[in-house]
Amino acid sequence: MPQSLAAVYLHLVFSTKGRRAWFVEANLRSRMHAYIGATSRELDCAPIQVGGTSDHVHLLARCGREISLSGLVKEVKRVSSRWLKAQGEQLAEFEWQRGYAAFSVSPSNLDRVRAYVTEQEKHHAKFDYQRELRTLLQRHGLEWDERNLWD
Q1: Which of 4, 37, 102, 120 stands the most exposed, by the fewest C-beta atoms within 10 Å?
Q2: Half-sphere exposure of 5 (CA within 13 A, CB side)
Q3: pLDDT of residue 151
Q4: Are residues 126 and 53 in contact, defined by beta-carbon separation less than 8 angstroms?
Q5: Beta-strand (E) ranges in the chain?
Q6: pLDDT < 50 regions, the chain
Q7: What would the CATH number be for the domain defined by 8-148?
Q8: CB-based burial of residue 65 (10 Å sphere; 0-12 exposed, 13-18 middle, 19+ buried)?
């Protein structure tokens, strides 16, 4: 086939370093989500939904054909970290955690995952990011070492 085509949907989740609540202010959180979406789009990974709370982000996107998963996450974190630090002196020490979680999403589940990402604040009224991530890892059959899960 002379043409390369792909329909790969990813649900990425990553936290601030130490799960520090950098995005308490709704306006900053909204602008940061928009910036992450724009960055993903520039990397040819069309964002479907960006969401999260004060200490973590969810990105649902259709991945482009020419970027690796690790390359996407690395660049989204790098660019958004630089942007956040430029938003004010109070953000000068901002950092993302080193790791991330990535889950494949079938086209038939896109609406459900989009709603999940959209409703993060409501969702986290019930439990914290750590419990959420453990639950996602379990649902997707991933094994992890608790000692290396958090930074």
Answers
A1: 4
A2: 3
A3: 82
A4: no
A5: 8-15, 46-52, 56-63, 101-105
A6: none
A7: 3.30.70.1290
A8: exposed
